[in-house]
Design a protein that fits this description.
Number of strands of chain D: 10
Radius of gyration of chain D: 24 Å
Shape of chain C: globular
Structural class of chain D: alpha+beta
Strand content of chain D: 5-15%
Largest sheet of chain D: 4 strands, antiparallel
Strand content of chain C: 15-25%
Number of helices of chain D: 8
Oligomer: heterotetramer
Largest sheet of chain C: 3 strands, antiparallel
Number of helices of chain C: 3
Chains: A alpha+beta (about 325), B alpha+beta (about 300), C alpha+beta (about 100), D alpha+beta (about 270)
Order of helices and strands of chain D: HEEEEEEHEHHHHEEEHH
Structural class of chain C: alpha+beta
Distance between the termini of chain D: 34 Å
Helix content of chain C: 25-40%
Number of domains of chain D: 1
Radius of gyration of chain C: 13 Å
Strand order of the largest sheet of chain D: 7-4-3-9
Distance between the termini of chain C: 25 Å
Number of domains of chain C: 1
Largest interface: A-D, 34 and 39 residues
Chain lengths: ~325, ~300, ~100, ~270
C-alpha cells in the first residue's frame, strides 16, 4: 500500500478525542491502521465512538474488551498485593498503570499493560519480598540464577521481577525510580514524601505533578520507547490532569527532585505533538530526530533511530563497562 | 465499495491487491486484510477463497491484518521461507516457501484466536442443519476435521473447521467457513468422497505431516450469516479398529473442557462466562469413539435424531 | 502458599455483587468479577461460599460454626479442613476482609 | 438460592464424602484456565528436530558450551585436552550463571581444572556491535560458517530454519557464538590438569541426532517451565539465546520456542 506521509500530529489529535474522525474512507483507514500498529487502539476506543454496526464500531469494541481485561487484571493484582501485605505496616506506592487505574485516570484507560509496579521504602524491601513470596510471587527461574539476582540487587532499582505461581502475573518491586547506576538520579525520597493514600485504601500513589514527572523519567530517562505513541498519549493525559498552578510549578519540582532533563524532553514532546506550549520544553537534536523518525514510522531510517534510542536507554541506565557486561549477559525473564 | 466474490474480479487485479496488501476478505464476522508475497499462496487463495466476498483498495477497515512474508528483509535473498505475521509481533515459526498456504491458514487462525474478543472462541469444528448446530470438539488425534468434512457430504453446512465462534449476546454460533484442514490419511479419504477438485494439492513434510485443504462450498459461504444454536457437542476419538461407542458426558466437564480450549475466554471475562453457560443450557454432550468414517457418521446421526427433530 | 497473613480475629465476608453463579448438577461455576476468573466449586466449597455470603464472620467463627452449617458431625469436619477451605476461597479473592 | 435448602436424599452423604476428600488434601476449589500445556491452536503445537548430535558442556559456574566435538570420558572424568578443544570449537558459548545449579557438576576436584573466573566483561564492544548489525548488513558474513553446521533447525523435516544468516540482524552476537574463535577468555584457560589430565569440573549433556523436542511438553499446567534433562537444558539455552538475540535464526528451534513464549506472554 502506498501511503502518503502521515500527519502524526493530526492523528494524535484524533486519538485523544480533540478532533473528529477523518472524513474520507482512505484517511480513516490510514488513521485506524496507524492506531493498530502503534498499539493504541484501546486508548482511541476510550474517547472515540462509532456508529453501531460499522466495522469501526467492531474494531473499537474489540479493543475495549481487550483493555477492560488489562484493567481488571491490574485491579485484581493490586487487590492481591494488598492482601499479601495485610497486617504488615507497609504501604506500597503504586506506580504507572496500576496507579492510573486505581485513581481512575484517563491516562490509564485503554492502556495496555502486562505487569504491576510498586515502590516501597528500601527498609521494607526484604519484608515485602518475603510476604509476596509467601503469597506465591517468586523470582522466575531465569532471574533466580545467581548472576541475575546479583545484577538486580546490586544495580537495578527493583527486585528481580516476581511471577505469581498460579496466576503468572508479574510484579516489579522497586525501592528507587531508576537504577543506582543511572545517569539521572531522581530523588525518590522526595517523591515518596509527597505520596498520598488512595481514597478508601491503604495503598498510595504519587501526587499528580510527581506522576507526570515519574512518567517522564520512565519514558525519557529510562528509555521506554517501544511504543512511543502510547507513552506520549499517557504523558498528554497526565499533563492535562494538572491544574494551572501545578503546571506553573512543574519545572521547579522537576529540578528539585533531579528530573529536569526528562521533564524538559517530555514538555518538548507535548509541544511537538500536542500543541502544548509549556515553558522549559527542550530536547537535544539527535533525540528529536530519533523520535520524529520513529514516530513517523516510515522510511529506511526507522531502524537506525530505534537502535539509537535503544542504546540511549541503556546508556541512561548505567556506566559503560557495566553496560557492556549487562548486554553480554542480559537477564532473561521468561525461561 | 461493496464486497464482491473474489472470482468476479479480474484475476490480475486480485493478484495485484493481494501482493500489495489491499485485499480485504469479508468472511463471517471478520474482515481481514491479506498480503501475500509468493505465488503459491496467491494461487491457493484465489482458488480456495474464490466464492468469498472481498474488497480491493486501501479504504476498507479490517479487524485483522495478515502478512505472509519472508522472515526478514535480508533473508529473502538467501532462503525461501515465509512466516505468517498477524501484525502484533507474533513471530510464528518460519516455513519453507513451498508451504506458504499453510502459513496463510495458520496466520488466519492465529488472528482469530489471539485478536478477537467480540466473540468467545472455542477450539472446535461446527456444522449445522439450518439453524441447529453440532459442535465437534478438538481433541488431538480425534479426527475433528475428517468428521467435519464427512458431515459436509451428508448435507450439513460448514460453519467452521477450527473455531466455535460464540456470540456473546444470544448464545448462537457464527459461521467462518474457511478451508477444512486435513492431515495425512484423511486427505485421500476426503478426496474420495468429496471429489478431487474439492481438495487442494497436498503439502508434504510440514511440521504436522502432510496437509491439504477441503474448500468450503458456495452454499456454506452464502449461508454463513445465518447463526446456529448449538444442540449437541461431541468429543470424537478415532481409534483404529474400534467398535463404535458413545457415552454421554457431564455438562460441567464439557464446560471445563471448552474453557480450556479457548484462547480468549479469560480475556473476555463475564460475557464469555454467561454466554457459555447459556449456550450449554439444554445441550447434550457425548464422547464418541469409532474406527471408521462410516461409524462416526452413524453415531452422529443417531445422536442428532434422538435430540433434535 | 496463601493469599496473605491471617488471624482468627479478622472479619471476612463474601460479597454477592462480586461474582455470578451457574449451577450444573452438584457443581457450581463461579465467575469472580474481581479477578475475571472462573472457578468450579463442589458442594462443600459452595457451602462455605454461602456460609459467608453477606454474613461477615471472624475466621474463628468460621472454623467454629462450619460443621453445624454443613449439618455434619464436628469430627467429620476438622478445623484444619475448614481453614484450608477458607484459604482456597481467600486465595482466589472470593472472600474479602472487612477492615476494622 | 443457598445450596443448603435444596438437599435431596443423599445430598448430605455427598457432602460428607467430599469432606473426606478435603481431609485427604484434595482441593475444593478448581480454577479454570486455558491450559498452557494444551497448545490451543495448531500453530503452537510445534516441535523441532535436532538433526545432528549436540553436546552441551556445563561448568561449575553455570557456563555452557554447545558443540559437537568429541570428549573422552573415563570414570566420570573428562579428558582436559578434549574439553579445551571442545570449548574452542563450540558453536555457542553462554556466560557463567546461565545454567541453573541443578544442571551443573556436583563436586569438582579443584586440582583438576581451574574453572575460569569472570569473562563476559571482556568483550566490551559486543554490545554495540549488535546495534550496528541491526541496520547494516556488513557484519553478515561472520555468522555463517558456524551456523551452517547447526542449521538443522526450527522445524523438523526440512532443516531450513534460517541458520546461517544470523549476522544479518545481530552482528554483535558473533562473540557469543564463536566461543573459541573470538578470543573468548577460555582459550587462555590454564587448566591445572594439563593437557594430559582428566577433570570432573564439567558435566556433559548429549542430545542424540534426530531428537524431536516439543517445547510445550516442558510446560506445566499453570504455564511455568519445568525444564529437565538434556532437552530441557537445550530449551533453557535456546531461551537465553532468544532473549539476547531475538528470533534471528541461528539457533535451531528458536522460532518454535518463541511462538510458545509469545503465546504465554499473552495469557
Amino acid at each position: 500500500m502506498t501511503r502518503r506521509r502521515r500527519d502524526i500530529k493530526a492523528f494524535f489529535c484524533i486519538a485523544t478525542g480533540r478532533a473528529g474522525l477523518p472524513d474520507t474512507p482512505s484517511d480513516l483507514a490510514a488513521f485506524v491502521s496507524w492506531a493498530q500498529e502503534s498499539h493504541i487502539l484501546g486508548q482511541v476506543a476510550a474517547v472515540v465512538t462509532a456508529e453501531v454496526g460499522s466495522k469501526l464500531y467492531d474494531i473499537l469494541e474489540n479493543a475495549r474488551l481487550r483493555s477492560s481485561y488489562d484493567r481488571r487484571m491490574l485491579t485484581f493484582e493490586t487487590n492481591r498485593v494488598r492482601r499479601a501485605l495485610m497486617g504488615a505496616d507497609i504501604q506500597p506506592i503504586l506506580l504507572k498503570g496500576s496507579a492510573y487505574v486505581a485513581e481512575h485516570l484517563l491516562a490509564g484507560v485503554g492502556r495496555r499493560v502486562s505487569d504491576i509496579d510498586i515502590l516501597v521504602p528500601e527498609e521494607h524491601l526484604k519484608e515485602t519480598e518475603k510476604l509476596l513470596g509467601q503469597a506465591g510471587w517468586r523470582a522466575e527461574e531465569s532471574t533466580a540464577g545467581a548472576y541475575d539476582q546479583q545484577y538486580y540487587r546490586r544495580w537495578m532499582h527493583e527486585l528481580p521481577p516476581l511471577r505469581h505461581e498460579t496466576r503468572r502475573t508479574l510484579i516489579d518491586v522497586h525501592h528507587r525510580l531508576l537504577p543506582r547506576t543511572s545517569r539521572i538520579r531522581p530523588d525518590h525520597l522526595k517523591l515518596m514524601a509527597d505520596a498520598r493514600l488512595i481514597e478508601g485504601s491503604d495503598l498510595m500513589v504519587f501526587s499528580p505533578t510527581d506522576r507526570f514527572i515519574h512518567s517522564a523519567i520512565h519514558i525519557f530517562g529510562d528509555g521506554a520507547f517501544e511504543t512511543p505513541a502510547r507513552s506520549f498519549i499517557e504523558l498528554f493525559y497526565l499533563y492535562s490532569d494538572l491544574t494551572g498552578a501545578e503546571r506553573q510549578s512543574l519545572m521547579l519540582r522537576a529540578k528539585d527532585v533531579g528530573a529536569e532533563t526528562p521533564v524538559r524532553e517530555a514538555l518538548w514532546m507535548l509541544g511537538e505533538y500536542f500543541d502544548i506550549q509549556a515553558k522549559g520544553g527542550k530536547a537535544p537534536w539527535l533525540l528529536k530526530w530519533c523520535i520524529r523518525t520513529v514516530t513517523d514510522g516510515q522510511g529506511g531510517l526507522v531502524y537506525l533511530a530505534n537502535a539509537l534510542l535503544y542504546v540511549r536507554s541503556h546508556y541512561m541506565r548505567m556506566p559503560l563497562p557495566l553496560l557492556a557486561g549487562h548486554l553480554w549477559k542480559k537477564a532473561l525473564r521468561r525461561v | 465499495m461493496t464486497a464482491r466474490p473474489l472470482e468476479k474480479y479480474m484475476k490480475a487485479d486480485a493478484i495485484r491487491a493481494l501482493k500489495s496488501g489491499t485485499l480485504v476478505l469479508e468472511l463471517g464476522a471478520f474482515s481481514t486484510r491479506v498480503k501475500l508475497s509468493d505465488r503459491r499462496s496467491v494461487a491457493f487463495f484465489l482458488d480456495m477463497y474464490a466464492d468469498c466476498l472481498v474488497t480491493l483498495g486501501d479504504c476498507a477497515l479490517s479487524d485483522f491484518s495478515l502478512t505472509v512474508r519472508p522472515p526478514n528483509q535480508f533473508r529473502k535473498y538467501f532462503r525461501h521461507q515465509v512466516v505468517p505475521d498477524p501484525g502484533f509481533g507474533f513471530p510464528a515459526a518460519p516455513l519453507p516457501v513451498s508451504m506458504s498456504p499453510l502459513a496463510l491458514e495458520m496466520g488466519l487462525n492465529l488472528s482469530v484466536a489471539l485478536q478477537c474478543f467480540r466473540y468467545a472462541i472455542f477450539h472446535a469444528g461446527v456444522v449445522a442443519e439450518g439453524d441447529q448446530a453440532l459442535i465437534i470438539a478438538a481433541k488431538s488425534g480425534g479426527g475433528k476435521s475428517t468428521l467435519t468434512a464427512a458431515l459436509m457430504e451428508e448435507g450439513w453446512r460448514l460453519l467452521s473447521d477450527e473455531f466455535a465462534i460464540l456470540d456473546l449476546e444470544e448464545a448462537s454460533l457464527r459461521g467462518y467457513p474457511r478451508p477444512v484442514s486435513l492431515k495425512n490419511a484423511s486427505i485421500d479419504v476426503v478426496r474420495g468422497f468429496a471429489g478431487k477438485d474439492q481438495v487442494s494439492e497436498t503439502l508434504h513434510g510440514t511440521p504436522k505431516g502432510s496437509i491439504a485443504y477441503r474448500r468450503p462450498r458456495r452454499g456454506d459461504i452464502e449461508r454463513m450469516a445465518l447463526p446456529a444454536r448449538p444442540r449437541v457437542i461431541v468429543f470424537p476419538a478415532f481409534t483404529e479398529g474400534a467398535a463404535p461407542r458413545c457415552q454421554e458426558i457431564d455438562l460441567a466437564d464439557t464446560a471445563m473442557q471448552l474453557i480450556a480450549s479457548s484462547p480468549n475466554y479469560q480475556v473476555i471475562g463475564e460475557r464469555a462466562f454467561t454466554g457459555l453457560m447459556t449456550m450449554l443450557d439444554g445441550m447434550k454432550a457425548y464422547e464418541i469413539e469409532y474406527g471408521s468414517t462410516e461409524d462416526s457418521l452413524a453415531l452422529v446421526s443417531d445422536l442428532w435424531r434422538s435430540h433434535v427433530s | 502458599m496463601s493469599a496473605g497473613p491471617n488471624s482468627d480475629d479478622w472479619v471476612w465476608v463474601v460479597d454477592p455483587d462480586h461474582f455470578i453463579i451457574y449451577e450444573i448438577g452438584d457443581t457450581t461455576f463461579v465467575f469472580s468479577r474481581l479477578s475475571g476468573t472462573t472457578h468450579m466449586l463442589n458442594l462443600v466449597s459452595r457451602a462455605m461460599l454461602d456460609f459467608l455470603t453477606g454474613k461477615p464472620k471472624t475466621l474463628g467463627e468460621v472454623v467454629a460454626g462450619f460443621a453445624d452449617y454443613l449439618q455434619v458431625p464436628k469430627e467429620e469436619c476438622p478445623s484444619g479442613v475448614v481453614r484450608r477451605l477458607f484459604d482456597e476461597l481467600d486465595d482466589v479473592g472470593l472472600v474479602e476482609r472487612i477492615l476494622p | 438460592m443457598s445450596n443448603n435448602q435444596k438437599k435431596d436424599g443423599d445430598f448430605l452423604a455427598r457432602r460428607r464424602q467430599l469432606l473426606k476428600l478435603g481431609a485427604a488434601g484434595v482441593p475444593m476449589v478448581l480454577t479454570l484456565k486455558a491450559s498452557a500445556t494444551q497448545p490451543i491452536h495448531s500453530a503452537l503445537d510445534c516441535a523441532f528436530v535436532i538433526h545432528n548430535k549436540v553436546k552441551i558442556l556445563v561448568d561449575a559456574d553455570g557456563k555452557a558450551w554447545m558443540g559437537d566435538g568429541n570428549i573422552r570420558e573415563k570414570n566420570g572424568k573428562y579428558k582436559s585436552q578434549d574439553i579445551k578443544q571442545f570449548k574452542n570449537n563450540a558453536d555457542y558459548v553462554f556466560p557463567e550463571y546461565t545454567v541453573p545449579e541443578r544442571f551443573r557438576p556436583d563436586e569438582c576436584d579443584e586440582g583438576g581444572d581451574s574453572c575460569s573466573g569472570s569473562s563476559g566483561y571482556g568483550d566490551d564492544d559486543s554490545g554495540y556491535g549488535s546495534y550496528g548489525g541491526g541496520y547494516g548488513d556488513d557484519d553478515g558474513g561472520d555468522g555463517d560458517e558456524s551456523c551452517d553446521s547447526d542449521d538443522d533447525g526450527g522445524y523438523g523435516g526440512y532443516g531450513d530454519d534460517s541458520g546461517g544468516h544470523s549476522g544479518d540482524d545481530s552482528g554483535g552476537s558473533s562473540s557469543w557464538r564463536h566461543g573459541g574463535g573470538r578470543g573468548d577468555d577460555d582459550g587462555d584457560d590454564s587448566s591445572g590438569g594439563g593437557n594430559g589430565g582428566w577433570t570432573d569440573c564439567y558435566k556433559l549433556y548429549e542430545i542424540d541426532r534426530n531428537t524431536t523436542i516439543t517445547p510445550s511438553d516442558y510446560l506445566n499446567g499453570s504455564g511455568n517451565w519445568n525444564l529437565n534433562g538434556p532437552n530441557g537444558l537445550y530449551l533453557l539455552l535456546a531461551g537465553k539465546y532468544l532473549d539476547t538475540y531475538g528470533n534471528d535464526g541461528g539457533f535451531p528451534g528458536i522460532s518454535c520456542l518463541l511462538s510458545i513464549l509469545n503465546y504465554l506472554e499473552m495469557q
